[in-house]
Amino acid sequence: MKKTIPGWDDTRITSSSGNIFVDLGFDEAEAQIMAMRVELMVSIEKHIAAQGWTQAEAAKRLGITQPRVSKLKKGAWDEFSVDMLLTLAARAGLHPELRLAA
């Protein structure tokens, strides 16, 4: 007899709100900031990869340590403030912009 875990055969689909952090139950304001941090981190990581920089070279160019670059590449979003990520993006040669939508 095959054992199953209750709920694993649940095939209900829930539509996304467009922000995974809201879907996970975070407060709307906090979820927006978390999504912004992730977007910045992904953009910086993609730029580092596109430039072909090693972690050591990225650290030198960004003005941070190699372990911090490693955390950035691993997506440790809770290790970086939005301010720091904006600074790193600018140091990387990106041109971050903040846009407010009503």
UniProtKB/TrEMBL annotation:
<dbReference type="Pfam" id="PF13744">
    <property type="entry name" value="HTH_37"/>
</dbReference>
<dbReference type="InterPro" id="IPR039554">
    <property type="entry name" value="HigA2-like_HTH"/>
</dbReference>
<dbReference type="InterPro" id="IPR001387">
    <property type="entry name" value="Cro/C1-type_HTH"/>
</dbReference>
<dbReference type="GO" id="GO:0003677">
    <property type="term" value="F:DNA binding"/>
</dbReference>
<dbReference type="InterPro" id="IPR010982">
    <property type="entry name" value="Lambda_DNA-bd_dom_sf"/>
</dbReference>
<protein>
    <submittedName>
        <fullName>Transcriptional regulator, XRE family</fullName>
    </submittedName>
</protein>
<feature type="domain" description="HTH cro/C1-type">
    <location>
        <begin position="44"/>
        <end position="99"/>
    </location>
</feature>
